[in-house]
Amino acid sequence: MSASVAPPLPGRHSYKVEGTNINFAHGTTCLAFRCNGFAIAAADSRSTQGETIASQAVTKLIKINDYIISTMAGSAADCQYWSRYVGSESQLFELRNKRRMTVAGASKFYSNILIQYKGRDLSVGSMIVGYDDFGADLFYIDNDGQRVRGDIFACGSGSTFALSVLDQEFRPDLTEDEAVELARKSIYHATHRDSGTGGQINVIVINEKGTNWVVKQDNFELFHKYINDPSPYPLQ
Amino acid sequence: MSNIMNHNGAAMLAMMGKECVTIGSDLTFNTGMQHQGRVFKVFPVTDKILLGLTGLFSDCQTFYQNVMYEVKLLQLKEGREIQPQHFGVLVAHMLYEKRFGPYFIEPLIAGLDEDNKPYIANTDTIGCLTEPDDFLVCGTAAEKILGPAESFWEEDLEAEELFEATAQALLAGIDRDSSSGWGSVVYTLTPQKMVTRFLRNRQD
Protein backbone atom coordinates (compact mmCIF):
# COMPACT_ATOMS: atom_id res chain seq x y z
CA MET A 1 0.00 0.00 0.00
CA SER A 2 1.43 3.32 -0.95
CA ALA A 3 -0.08 6.26 0.83
CA SER A 4 1.53 8.81 -1.44
CA VAL A 5 -0.73 8.08 -4.40
CA ALA A 6 -3.55 10.61 -4.45
CA PRO A 7 -6.96 9.42 -5.61
CA PRO A 8 -7.94 10.73 -9.05
CA LEU A 9 -9.73 14.04 -8.99
CA PRO A 10 -13.42 13.77 -9.79
CA GLY A 11 -13.93 14.38 -13.48
CA ARG A 12 -10.20 14.33 -14.15
CA HIS A 13 -9.53 10.63 -14.30
CA SER A 14 -9.14 8.61 -17.47
CA TYR A 15 -12.24 7.08 -19.02
CA LYS A 16 -10.29 4.50 -20.96
CA VAL A 17 -11.71 1.03 -20.41
CA GLU A 18 -9.04 -1.67 -20.36
CA GLY A 19 -9.06 -3.97 -23.36
CA THR A 20 -11.26 -1.77 -25.52
CA ASN A 21 -10.07 -0.09 -28.66
CA ILE A 22 -12.02 2.94 -29.74
CA ASN A 23 -9.36 4.31 -32.06
CA PHE A 24 -10.87 3.00 -35.26
CA ALA A 25 -9.06 5.21 -37.72
CA HIS A 26 -5.53 4.79 -36.34
CA GLY A 27 -4.28 3.21 -39.51
CA THR A 28 -5.00 5.87 -42.10
CA THR A 29 -3.57 8.36 -44.55
CA CYS A 30 -4.80 11.93 -44.73
CA LEU A 31 -3.05 14.76 -46.52
CA ALA A 32 -3.70 18.42 -47.16
CA PHE A 33 -1.80 21.12 -49.00
CA ARG A 34 -2.14 24.70 -50.05
CA CYS A 35 -1.42 26.25 -53.44
CA ASN A 36 -2.07 29.69 -54.92
CA GLY A 37 -5.81 30.28 -54.74
CA PHE A 38 -6.98 26.90 -53.47
CA ALA A 39 -6.30 24.08 -51.02
CA ILE A 40 -6.63 20.31 -51.27
CA ALA A 41 -7.68 17.71 -48.71
CA ALA A 42 -7.38 14.00 -49.47
CA ALA A 43 -7.75 10.73 -47.59
CA ASP A 44 -8.22 6.99 -47.94
CA SER A 45 -11.30 5.16 -46.61
CA ARG A 46 -10.06 2.13 -44.66
CA SER A 47 -10.88 1.49 -41.03
CA THR A 48 -9.01 -1.24 -39.16
CA GLN A 49 -9.47 -2.92 -35.82
CA GLY A 50 -6.13 -4.58 -35.18
CA GLU A 51 -5.33 -6.44 -38.40
CA THR A 52 -8.95 -6.85 -39.41
CA ILE A 53 -10.40 -4.47 -41.99
CA ALA A 54 -13.54 -3.15 -40.31
CA SER A 55 -14.61 -1.05 -43.30
CA GLN A 56 -13.33 0.02 -46.71
CA ALA A 57 -15.83 2.87 -47.09
CA VAL A 58 -15.23 5.37 -44.31
CA THR A 59 -15.55 9.09 -45.02
CA LYS A 60 -12.51 10.70 -43.44
CA LEU A 61 -13.02 14.15 -44.92
CA ILE A 62 -15.56 15.96 -42.75
CA LYS A 63 -17.26 19.15 -43.84
CA ILE A 64 -17.16 21.79 -41.09
CA ASN A 65 -19.02 24.28 -43.29
CA ASP A 66 -19.17 25.21 -47.00
CA TYR A 67 -15.62 26.52 -46.95
CA ILE A 68 -13.82 24.42 -44.33
CA ILE A 69 -12.97 20.71 -44.29
CA SER A 70 -11.40 18.71 -41.47
CA THR A 71 -9.57 15.44 -42.02
CA MET A 72 -10.02 12.55 -39.62
CA ALA A 73 -7.34 10.54 -37.85
CA GLY A 74 -7.57 9.01 -34.40
CA SER A 75 -10.93 8.23 -32.84
CA ALA A 76 -13.67 8.53 -35.46
CA ALA A 77 -16.26 9.47 -32.85
CA ASP A 78 -14.14 12.27 -31.37
CA CYS A 79 -13.35 13.72 -34.81
CA GLN A 80 -16.92 13.52 -36.08
CA TYR A 81 -18.52 14.96 -32.94
CA TRP A 82 -16.16 17.89 -32.49
CA SER A 83 -16.02 18.74 -36.20
CA ARG A 84 -19.81 18.97 -36.18
CA TYR A 85 -19.67 21.05 -33.00
CA VAL A 86 -17.19 23.47 -34.57
CA GLY A 87 -19.40 23.52 -37.67
CA SER A 88 -22.48 24.57 -35.74
CA GLU A 89 -20.51 27.23 -33.89
CA SER A 90 -19.16 28.54 -37.20
CA GLN A 91 -22.71 28.91 -38.48
CA LEU A 92 -23.77 30.80 -35.34
CA PHE A 93 -20.69 32.99 -35.78
CA GLU A 94 -21.76 33.76 -39.32
CA LEU A 95 -25.30 34.74 -38.20
CA ARG A 96 -24.01 36.91 -35.38
CA ASN A 97 -21.21 38.67 -37.24
CA LYS A 98 -22.43 38.68 -40.86
CA ARG A 99 -19.14 37.22 -42.11
CA ARG A 100 -17.75 33.74 -42.42
CA MET A 101 -15.48 32.30 -39.76
CA THR A 102 -11.86 32.21 -40.94
CA VAL A 103 -9.91 28.96 -41.16
CA ALA A 104 -7.58 30.31 -38.49
CA GLY A 105 -10.59 31.08 -36.31
CA ALA A 106 -12.23 27.70 -36.74
CA SER A 107 -9.00 25.81 -36.09
CA LYS A 108 -8.26 27.93 -33.02
CA PHE A 109 -11.78 27.29 -31.71
CA TYR A 110 -11.36 23.54 -32.33
CA SER A 111 -7.91 23.52 -30.74
CA ASN A 112 -9.21 25.34 -27.65
CA ILE A 113 -11.77 22.58 -27.14
CA LEU A 114 -9.06 19.93 -27.43
CA ILE A 115 -6.91 21.80 -24.88
CA GLN A 116 -9.85 21.85 -22.45
CA TYR A 117 -10.10 18.08 -22.75
CA LYS A 118 -6.33 17.49 -22.58
CA GLY A 119 -5.39 14.40 -20.58
CA ARG A 120 -8.86 12.90 -20.88
CA ASP A 121 -8.06 10.58 -23.77
CA LEU A 122 -9.61 12.38 -26.69
CA SER A 123 -7.90 11.06 -29.81
CA VAL A 124 -7.86 13.62 -32.62
CA GLY A 125 -5.28 14.37 -35.30
CA SER A 126 -6.80 16.67 -37.85
CA MET A 127 -5.94 19.00 -40.67
CA ILE A 128 -8.27 22.00 -40.93
CA VAL A 129 -8.32 23.09 -44.57
CA GLY A 130 -10.31 25.91 -46.03
CA TYR A 131 -10.69 29.15 -47.90
CA ASP A 132 -11.51 32.53 -46.33
CA ASP A 133 -11.08 36.29 -46.93
CA PHE A 134 -7.31 35.86 -46.69
CA GLY A 135 -7.18 33.02 -49.22
CA ALA A 136 -6.55 29.30 -48.82
CA ASP A 137 -5.36 28.29 -45.37
CA LEU A 138 -4.30 25.12 -43.60
CA PHE A 139 -3.70 24.08 -39.98
CA TYR A 140 -2.72 20.87 -38.25
CA ILE A 141 -4.27 20.35 -34.81
CA ASP A 142 -4.19 17.42 -32.39
CA ASN A 143 -5.39 16.30 -28.96
CA ASP A 144 -2.14 17.43 -27.30
CA GLY A 145 -3.24 20.97 -28.05
CA GLN A 146 -0.82 21.48 -30.91
CA ARG A 147 -1.94 23.88 -33.65
CA VAL A 148 0.41 24.65 -36.53
CA ARG A 149 -0.09 26.52 -39.76
CA GLY A 150 1.62 25.07 -42.81
CA ASP A 151 1.58 24.46 -46.56
CA ILE A 152 1.80 20.68 -46.60
CA PHE A 153 0.66 18.19 -43.98
CA ALA A 154 -0.02 14.48 -43.89
CA CYS A 155 -0.95 12.27 -40.98
CA GLY A 156 -1.67 8.65 -40.19
CA SER A 157 0.27 5.41 -40.61
CA GLY A 158 0.62 5.91 -44.37
CA SER A 159 1.63 9.56 -44.18
CA THR A 160 5.34 8.85 -44.79
CA PHE A 161 4.52 7.18 -48.11
CA ALA A 162 2.14 9.96 -49.12
CA LEU A 163 4.63 12.69 -48.20
CA SER A 164 7.45 11.16 -50.21
CA VAL A 165 5.30 11.36 -53.35
CA LEU A 166 3.84 14.75 -52.46
CA ASP A 167 7.20 16.38 -51.70
CA GLN A 168 8.61 15.14 -54.99
CA GLU A 169 6.17 17.08 -57.17
CA PHE A 170 4.68 19.80 -55.00
CA ARG A 171 4.88 23.42 -56.15
CA PRO A 172 2.84 26.38 -54.86
CA ASP A 173 1.88 27.27 -58.45
CA LEU A 174 0.26 23.92 -59.32
CA THR A 175 -3.02 24.21 -61.21
CA GLU A 176 -6.12 22.69 -59.61
CA ASP A 177 -6.06 19.71 -61.96
CA GLU A 178 -2.39 19.06 -61.32
CA ALA A 179 -2.91 19.33 -57.57
CA VAL A 180 -5.85 16.90 -57.59
CA GLU A 181 -3.80 14.42 -59.59
CA LEU A 182 -0.88 14.78 -57.17
CA ALA A 183 -3.15 14.22 -54.16
CA ARG A 184 -4.68 11.16 -55.79
CA LYS A 185 -1.27 9.74 -56.58
CA SER A 186 0.08 10.41 -53.07
CA ILE A 187 -2.84 8.66 -51.37
CA TYR A 188 -2.66 5.83 -53.92
CA HIS A 189 0.95 5.03 -53.04
CA ALA A 190 0.05 5.01 -49.36
CA THR A 191 -2.78 2.52 -50.01
CA HIS A 192 -0.37 0.32 -51.91
CA ARG A 193 2.46 0.22 -49.37
CA ASP A 194 0.75 0.71 -46.01
CA SER A 195 -1.43 -2.08 -44.65
CA GLY A 196 -3.47 0.38 -42.57
CA THR A 197 -4.44 2.38 -45.64
CA GLY A 198 -6.78 1.33 -48.44
CA GLY A 199 -10.21 1.35 -50.03
CA GLN A 200 -11.29 4.46 -51.87
CA ILE A 201 -9.33 7.62 -52.56
CA ASN A 202 -11.18 10.85 -51.77
CA VAL A 203 -10.00 14.29 -52.82
CA ILE A 204 -11.66 17.63 -52.08
CA VAL A 205 -10.71 20.98 -53.59
CA ILE A 206 -11.49 24.14 -51.63
CA ASN A 207 -11.37 27.51 -53.40
CA GLU A 208 -13.23 30.83 -53.45
CA LYS A 209 -16.37 28.98 -54.68
CA GLY A 210 -16.37 26.60 -51.70
CA THR A 211 -15.68 22.88 -51.33
CA ASN A 212 -15.80 20.55 -54.30
CA TRP A 213 -15.56 16.78 -53.94
CA VAL A 214 -13.67 15.88 -57.12
CA VAL A 215 -12.37 12.34 -56.62
CA LYS A 216 -14.05 9.28 -55.11
CA GLN A 217 -12.30 6.32 -56.62
CA ASP A 218 -11.36 2.77 -55.68
CA ASN A 219 -7.58 2.54 -55.45
CA PHE A 220 -7.53 -0.72 -57.44
CA GLU A 221 -8.57 1.21 -60.57
CA LEU A 222 -5.25 3.04 -60.38
CA PHE A 223 -2.94 0.06 -59.90
CA HIS A 224 -1.89 -0.23 -63.52
CA LYS A 225 -1.68 3.51 -63.97
CA TYR A 226 0.82 4.09 -61.19
CA ILE A 227 2.60 0.80 -60.59
CA ASN A 228 5.02 -0.47 -63.19
CA ASP A 229 5.08 -3.89 -61.64
CA PRO A 230 8.28 -5.80 -62.26
CA SER A 231 6.84 -9.10 -60.99
CA PRO A 232 7.62 -12.08 -63.22
CA TYR A 233 4.13 -13.58 -62.92
CA PRO A 234 0.85 -12.37 -64.41
CA LEU A 235 -1.40 -10.20 -62.25
CA GLN A 236 -3.66 -9.01 -65.10
CA MET B 1 1.84 -6.70 -35.67
CA SER B 2 3.66 -6.81 -32.35
CA ASN B 3 3.25 -10.58 -32.44
CA ILE B 4 6.10 -12.31 -34.24
CA MET B 5 3.70 -14.74 -35.95
CA ASN B 6 1.87 -11.79 -37.55
CA HIS B 7 4.96 -9.79 -38.53
CA ASN B 8 5.18 -10.96 -42.14
CA GLY B 9 1.49 -11.68 -42.79
CA ALA B 10 -0.03 -14.51 -44.80
CA ALA B 11 -3.26 -16.07 -45.95
CA MET B 12 -3.30 -19.76 -46.76
CA LEU B 13 -5.96 -22.31 -47.53
CA ALA B 14 -5.88 -25.98 -48.55
CA MET B 15 -8.89 -27.95 -49.73
CA MET B 16 -9.51 -31.60 -50.38
CA GLY B 17 -11.55 -32.83 -53.35
CA LYS B 18 -12.15 -36.04 -55.28
CA GLU B 19 -8.68 -37.29 -56.25
CA CYS B 20 -7.40 -33.73 -56.06
CA VAL B 21 -6.18 -31.14 -53.58
CA THR B 22 -5.70 -27.39 -53.84
CA ILE B 23 -3.52 -25.06 -51.86
CA GLY B 24 -3.82 -21.31 -52.20
CA SER B 25 -1.79 -18.51 -50.67
CA ASP B 26 -1.38 -14.76 -50.93
CA LEU B 27 1.93 -13.27 -52.07
CA THR B 28 2.59 -10.34 -49.75
CA PHE B 29 5.70 -9.99 -47.66
CA ASN B 30 5.14 -7.48 -44.86
CA THR B 31 7.34 -6.09 -42.16
CA GLY B 32 4.92 -4.81 -39.55
CA MET B 33 2.62 -2.45 -41.42
CA GLN B 34 4.72 -2.07 -44.57
CA HIS B 35 4.16 -4.16 -47.68
CA GLN B 36 7.72 -4.87 -48.77
CA GLY B 37 7.14 -7.04 -51.81
CA ARG B 38 5.98 -10.43 -53.00
CA VAL B 39 7.18 -13.88 -52.03
CA PHE B 40 6.00 -17.42 -52.66
CA LYS B 41 4.96 -19.21 -49.50
CA VAL B 42 4.09 -22.59 -50.97
CA PHE B 43 7.08 -24.83 -51.64
CA PRO B 44 7.38 -28.04 -53.66
CA VAL B 45 8.44 -31.14 -51.72
CA THR B 46 7.85 -33.89 -54.30
CA ASP B 47 5.83 -33.94 -57.53
CA LYS B 48 2.74 -34.69 -55.46
CA ILE B 49 3.36 -32.89 -52.16
CA LEU B 50 3.24 -29.14 -51.54
CA LEU B 51 4.27 -27.47 -48.30
CA GLY B 52 2.79 -24.08 -47.41
CA LEU B 53 4.53 -22.15 -44.66
CA THR B 54 3.07 -19.22 -42.72
CA GLY B 55 4.51 -17.28 -39.80
CA LEU B 56 7.98 -15.74 -39.61
CA PHE B 57 9.28 -15.93 -43.15
CA SER B 58 12.94 -16.42 -42.21
CA ASP B 59 11.94 -19.46 -40.16
CA CYS B 60 9.85 -20.66 -43.10
CA GLN B 61 12.92 -20.60 -45.34
CA THR B 62 15.12 -22.34 -42.76
CA PHE B 63 12.51 -24.96 -42.03
CA TYR B 64 12.00 -25.67 -45.73
CA GLN B 65 15.75 -26.22 -46.19
CA ASN B 66 15.88 -28.57 -43.22
CA VAL B 67 12.81 -30.52 -44.25
CA MET B 68 14.14 -30.94 -47.80
CA TYR B 69 17.40 -32.29 -46.38
CA GLU B 70 15.41 -35.01 -44.62
CA VAL B 71 13.19 -35.73 -47.63
CA LYS B 72 16.12 -36.09 -50.04
CA LEU B 73 18.09 -38.18 -47.56
CA LEU B 74 15.15 -40.56 -47.28
CA GLN B 75 14.87 -40.69 -51.04
CA LEU B 76 18.53 -41.70 -51.37
CA LYS B 77 18.42 -44.23 -48.54
CA GLU B 78 15.18 -45.95 -49.51
CA GLY B 79 15.02 -45.31 -53.25
CA ARG B 80 11.38 -44.18 -53.07
CA GLU B 81 9.45 -40.96 -52.73
CA ILE B 82 8.04 -39.88 -49.39
CA GLN B 83 4.24 -40.14 -49.03
CA PRO B 84 2.15 -37.19 -47.79
CA GLN B 85 1.01 -38.98 -44.60
CA HIS B 86 4.63 -39.83 -43.81
CA PHE B 87 5.69 -36.27 -44.63
CA GLY B 88 3.10 -34.87 -42.20
CA VAL B 89 4.58 -36.93 -39.37
CA LEU B 90 8.09 -35.86 -40.38
CA VAL B 91 7.13 -32.18 -40.19
CA ALA B 92 5.42 -32.66 -36.82
CA HIS B 93 8.51 -34.42 -35.45
CA MET B 94 10.90 -31.77 -36.76
CA LEU B 95 8.82 -29.06 -35.07
CA TYR B 96 8.49 -30.91 -31.77
CA GLU B 97 12.27 -31.39 -31.79
CA LYS B 98 12.42 -27.63 -31.16
CA ARG B 99 9.70 -27.77 -28.44
CA PHE B 100 11.44 -25.29 -26.14
CA GLY B 101 12.70 -22.90 -28.80
CA PRO B 102 10.25 -23.34 -31.65
CA TYR B 103 10.26 -22.23 -35.26
CA PHE B 104 7.68 -19.45 -35.51
CA ILE B 105 5.84 -21.18 -38.32
CA GLU B 106 2.59 -22.94 -39.00
CA PRO B 107 2.96 -25.37 -41.90
CA LEU B 108 0.20 -26.57 -44.18
CA ILE B 109 0.67 -29.75 -46.17
CA ALA B 110 -1.29 -30.79 -49.25
CA GLY B 111 -0.64 -33.81 -51.41
CA LEU B 112 -1.78 -36.94 -53.20
CA ASP B 113 -0.46 -40.32 -52.10
CA GLU B 114 0.53 -43.29 -54.30
CA ASP B 115 -3.14 -44.33 -54.63
CA ASN B 116 -4.02 -40.70 -55.49
CA LYS B 117 -5.85 -40.34 -52.21
CA PRO B 118 -5.86 -36.67 -51.24
CA TYR B 119 -4.20 -35.61 -48.02
CA ILE B 120 -4.14 -32.26 -46.21
CA ALA B 121 -2.67 -31.50 -42.80
CA ASN B 122 -1.36 -28.72 -40.68
CA THR B 123 0.38 -28.33 -37.36
CA ASP B 124 0.83 -25.60 -34.79
CA THR B 125 4.28 -24.12 -34.08
CA ILE B 126 5.37 -27.10 -31.97
CA GLY B 127 4.06 -29.89 -34.16
CA CYS B 128 0.56 -30.86 -33.15
CA LEU B 129 -0.64 -32.58 -36.32
CA THR B 130 -4.23 -32.28 -37.56
CA GLU B 131 -5.38 -34.25 -40.60
CA PRO B 132 -8.95 -33.26 -41.51
CA ASP B 133 -10.84 -34.46 -44.57
CA ASP B 134 -12.24 -31.14 -45.76
CA PHE B 135 -10.12 -27.98 -45.64
CA LEU B 136 -7.54 -26.06 -43.60
CA VAL B 137 -6.72 -22.41 -43.05
CA CYS B 138 -3.52 -20.75 -41.88
CA GLY B 139 -1.86 -17.36 -41.42
CA THR B 140 -2.98 -13.91 -40.24
CA ALA B 141 -6.13 -14.15 -42.38
CA ALA B 142 -7.03 -17.64 -41.06
CA GLU B 143 -10.22 -16.66 -39.24
CA LYS B 144 -11.33 -14.50 -42.14
CA ILE B 145 -10.97 -17.36 -44.65
CA LEU B 146 -12.59 -19.92 -42.38
CA GLY B 147 -16.15 -18.64 -42.86
CA PRO B 148 -16.08 -18.42 -46.67
CA ALA B 149 -14.26 -21.77 -46.87
CA GLU B 150 -16.95 -23.36 -44.74
CA SER B 151 -19.65 -22.19 -47.15
CA PHE B 152 -17.82 -22.84 -50.44
CA TRP B 153 -16.48 -26.31 -49.67
CA GLU B 154 -18.47 -29.42 -50.54
CA GLU B 155 -17.67 -33.09 -50.50
CA ASP B 156 -16.10 -34.77 -53.57
CA LEU B 157 -15.55 -31.65 -55.70
CA GLU B 158 -13.74 -32.13 -59.00
CA ALA B 159 -10.47 -30.28 -59.62
CA GLU B 160 -12.00 -27.27 -61.41
CA GLU B 161 -14.78 -26.81 -58.86
CA LEU B 162 -12.31 -27.21 -56.03
CA PHE B 163 -10.09 -24.51 -57.51
CA GLU B 164 -13.07 -22.17 -57.73
CA ALA B 165 -14.05 -22.80 -54.10
CA THR B 166 -10.48 -22.27 -52.92
CA ALA B 167 -10.02 -19.09 -54.95
CA GLN B 168 -13.31 -17.54 -53.84
CA ALA B 169 -12.77 -18.31 -50.16
CA LEU B 170 -9.19 -17.07 -50.29
CA LEU B 171 -10.09 -13.80 -52.02
CA ALA B 172 -12.98 -13.11 -49.63
CA GLY B 173 -10.72 -13.69 -46.63
CA ILE B 174 -7.80 -11.65 -47.94
CA ASP B 175 -10.03 -8.62 -48.53
CA ARG B 176 -10.83 -8.50 -44.81
CA ASP B 177 -7.22 -8.84 -43.64
CA SER B 178 -4.91 -5.83 -43.79
CA SER B 179 -1.73 -7.94 -43.46
CA SER B 180 -2.25 -10.16 -46.48
CA GLY B 181 -2.89 -9.61 -50.17
CA TRP B 182 -0.81 -8.19 -53.03
CA GLY B 183 -1.85 -11.01 -55.32
CA SER B 184 -2.37 -14.69 -54.69
CA VAL B 185 -1.70 -18.05 -56.24
CA VAL B 186 -3.62 -21.33 -56.20
CA TYR B 187 -2.03 -24.70 -56.99
CA THR B 188 -4.36 -27.51 -58.06
CA LEU B 189 -2.91 -30.97 -57.70
CA THR B 190 -4.45 -33.85 -59.68
CA PRO B 191 -3.04 -37.33 -60.45
CA GLN B 192 -2.05 -36.12 -63.94
CA LYS B 193 -0.60 -32.67 -63.30
CA MET B 194 -0.22 -29.63 -61.10
CA VAL B 195 -1.88 -26.41 -62.32
CA THR B 196 -0.71 -23.00 -61.08
CA ARG B 197 -3.09 -20.06 -61.33
CA PHE B 198 -2.60 -16.46 -60.20
CA LEU B 199 -5.59 -14.53 -58.89
CA ARG B 200 -6.54 -10.93 -59.48
CA ASN B 201 -6.38 -9.38 -56.02
CA ARG B 202 -6.89 -5.92 -54.66
CA GLN B 203 -3.49 -4.30 -54.28
CA ASP B 204 -3.98 -2.45 -50.99
Q: What amount of the residues of chain A lies in strands?
A: 25-35%
Unreliable parts of chain B: none
Give the end-to-end Cα distance of chain A, rounded to a whole number of Å.
Answer: 66 Å
Count up the domains of chain B: 1
**Overall helicity of chain B:** 25-40%
Number of continuous helical runs of chain A? 5
Computed structural class of chain B = alpha+beta
Per CATH, the superfamily of chain B is Aminohydrolase, N-terminal nucleophile (Ntn) domain
Biggest sheet of chain A, in brief? 5 strands, antiparallel
- Overall mean pLDDT of chain B stands at 96
For the record, what CATH class of chain A applies? Alpha Beta
State Rg of chain A: 19 Å
* Mean pLDDT across residues of chain A: 89
Q: Give the low-confidence spans of chain A.
A: 6-24
Overall structural domain count of chain A: 1
SSE sequence of chain B, one letter per element: EEEEEEHHEEEEHHEE
| Bulk shape of chain B | globular
**CATH topology of chain A, what is it called?**
Glutamine Phosphoribosylpyrophosphate, subunit 1, domain 1
**Percent helix range of chain A:** 25-40%
Describe the structure.
The complex is a heterodimer of chains A (236) and B (204). Chain A has five helices and twelve strands. Chain A has one domain: Aminohydrolase, N-terminal nucleophile (Ntn) domain (Glutamine Phosphoribosylpyrophosphate, subunit 1, domain 1), CATH 3.60.20. In chain A, helix 1 crosses helix 2. The longest helix of chain A is centred in the middle third of the chain and has 22 residues, at 76-97. Chain A has helices at residues 76-97, 103-116, 159-169, 176-193, 223-226; strands at residues 30-35, 38-43, 47-49, 52-55, 61-65, 68-71, 125-132, 135-142, 147-149, 152-155, 200-207, 210-218. Chain A has a five-stranded antiparallel sheet with strand order 10-1-2-11-12, covered by helices on one side. A five-stranded antiparallel sheet of chain A has the order 5-6-7-8-9. In chain A, strands 3-4 form a two-stranded antiparallel ribbon. Chain B has 204 residues and is of the alpha+beta class. Chain B has one domain (4-199): Aminohydrolase, N-terminal nucleophile (Ntn) domain (Glutamine Phosphoribosylpyrophosphate, subunit 1, domain 1), CATH 3.60.20.10. In chain B, the strands form three sheets. In chain B, strands 10-1-2-11-12 form a five-stranded antiparallel sheet, covered by helices on one side. Chain B has a five-stranded antiparallel sheet with strand order 5-6-7-8-9, covered by helices on one side. The longest helix of chain B is centred in the N-terminal third of the chain and has 22 residues, at 57-78. At the A-B interface, helix 4 of A face strand 4 of B.
